[in-house]
Amino acid sequence: MNVMNSVTKPHERLADLLKDELADVNALIRDRMASDHAPRIPEVTAHLVEAGGKRLRPMLTLAAAKMCGYAGPYHIHLAATVEFIHTATLLHDDVVDESAKRRGRPTANLLWDNKSSVLVGDYLFARSFQLMTETGNLRVLRILSNAAATIAEGEVLQLTAAQDLTTTEAIYLQVVRGKTAALFSAATEVGGVIADRPEPEIKALFDYGDALGIAFQIVDDLLDYWGGDATGKNIGDDFRERKLTLPLIKAYAAANDEERAFWKRVIEKGDQRDGDLERALELLNTHGALEATRQEALSWAAKAKTAMQSLPQSEMRDLLIDLNDYVVARVN
Amino acid sequence: MNVMNSVTKPHERLADLLKDELADVNALIRDRMASDHAPRIPEVTAHLVEAGGKRLRPMLTLAAAKMCGYAGPYHIHLAATVEFIHTATLLHDDVVDESAKRRGRPTANLLWDNKSSVLVGDYLFARSFQLMTETGNLRVLRILSNAAATIAEGEVLQLTAAQDLTTTEAIYLQVVRGKTAALFSAATEVGGVIADRPEPEIKALFDYGDALGIAFQIVDDLLDYWGGDATGKNIGDDFRERKLTLPLIKAYAAANDEERAFWKRVIEKGDQRDGDLERALELLNTHGALEATRQEALSWAAKAKTAMQSLPQSEMRDLLIDLNDYVVARVN
After folding, report:
1. What confidence score (pLDDT) does residue B162 get?
2. What CATH superfamily classification does A3-329 receive?
C-alpha cells in the first residue's frame, strides 16, 4: 500500500476543488433522471447514481475544462452526459453479467428486474444524447457518439472473447479501450474541445484519458487475482465468469501442455472444481503473469503522465497527474 | 378486407417511388452495422434488418423530405438513423418480452442470447447518434434524441402498467406515443426540418406522423384480439402477456362485479385457464370494446389525413394519405 492512502486521496482533492461544479452536475443529473410518466426510471437511476460512486468520469471532464480555462456553462452538461453514459452501461453490464452486487449493494436487475435495467439504461442513453445536444457543439457530439459506439463494440467483443483461450493481448486491449478507456478519453477530450484549445493540447488530453483508462482497467483486472485485504475486490470473479483478462492471457501463453489442459477445462469447458482457483493463482505466479500485468499497468500510467506533463502547469493539471499515480498505487 | 389489397399496396408504391433512396439507405445501413472488431454485431443486426421489414419508418423520412423539396444528401442518413433506432428498440423489446419470434423468424435473443441483443442494441443506438450527428443539423438532433427518450420512457411505462387494471386510456395513449408514435412523428418531422420548410408545414408533418403512429398501434392492439385469417397476428398474445391495451381497458371500464373478478384473476393474478381467452373475447364483444377501439383508430387516422391534406398537393403527399388509409384498412 502506498503512502497516498494516509493523506487525502487525489480524487477527493479533485472533488473538493470542483465541489461547486459537482453540485451543479448532481443537480442536473437529478433533474434529468426524472420522468413525469414513469416513476420506475428515477427509482432505478437513483439506486445506482446515489450509491456512492466516485464520479471519476464527470470529474475528468470538469477538471479538463477548467484547466483549459473554459468559462462557459456546458462542462456541466458534458460531465452529466458522461455520467449518464456510464450509468446506462453499468445497468446493461449487470444484466449481461447477471451480477447480484454493484458498489456493495444489490444490483438493479436483482432489486427490480432485467427488463427495468435494460429499458432504464436506454432512457439514460437517450438522456445523455439530449444533454450533449444542448451544448450545440458538433465536435463534442461526434466524440461522444463515437465513444458510445466504441463502448458497445468493446462489450460485444468481450462477450464473444469470453471462454476463448485464443484471445490475444491485442484483443484484450481493444476490449479495454472499449469498455473503459473510450469514455475516459472522451471525458477529457471534450473538456479541451469546448474550451477551444489548440489541437496538440486536445490530443494530449485524449492521450491522457486513454492511457489512464487502460491503466485503470488493467489494475482492476489484476486485483481480481491479487486483491483481497483493503482493495474491496472479491478474488476470482473473472476466473469464475471465465473472462480472458490480461493475467490469464499471459499465463496461458506461457503454459506447458499439462497447464493448457487445466485452463481448457476451467475456462473453455467451465468445469471448475474445489482448489481450481488456488491452482490458477499458483500458475499466474509461476509464470510471472501477475507481475508482467502490473508492469503493463505502470507503463500505461507513465504514458498518461507524459501526456499530461506536456500541458501547461496548473493546480488542476498536477491533480490529474496525482490521480493517475493513485490509480496504479493500489498495485505499486 | 379492403379493396386496396387487390391492387399494389401504398407502402409498395412508396417503396417503388423511393427505390433509389431506399437502396442508398440500405447501403448505408449495411456499411454502418459493420464492426471491425466484433463480427457478432453485423450477424445479429443482419438477422433483423434483412428479415423483410417494410422499412416503413425510413420511408416516412424519405417521403417527407422529398415532398418538401429537399435536395441534399442527409435524408438518407436520417432514414438510416430512424431504422437503427427502430432495430435497437426491437432487439431490446424482444429481451424484455422474452419473445421467441419476430417477423416469422426466431428472435436474436433466442438464436444468440439476451446479452447479445442488449449489447448489439446499444451499438445500434450509438450508431444512430453518429449518423444523425453527421447531418450537422442541431434541430434534427434535438428531435431525434427527444424521440429516443420518449420511446424508452414509453417502454418503461408499459412495463409498469402491465398487469395493472387501473391503467387508464390516458396512460395507454402515453405508452403508444412512446413505443410507436414518437418515432413516426420524428421520422416525418425531420424531413421537413432538413428541407427548411416553414413552421406550420413542419408542425403538420409532425401531426401526421404522430396520428399515423397512434392509429397504427391501436390497430395492432385491436388485431391482437380480432386478427386471425390474413392479418398474420397470433390472437391473444397481449392477453397471455397481461398487457393493458385499449380493448381490455375499455372492457374493464364497462365490466360488472363478476366480470371484474374475471379480469383480476386472469390479468392481475395471471391465473389463466382453458377457455379464458374465449371468455375475454366474449366480454370484449359484449361491451362493444372492440368496436369502440376500432372507432378510435379510425379517428386518429382521420387526424393524420387532415394534417397531411393541409400540405401542398403532390404525388408523394397523396401516397402518404393512402398509406394512412391502408394502416386502418385492416380493420375498416
Report:
1. 86
2. Farnesyl Diphosphate Synthase (1.10.600.10)
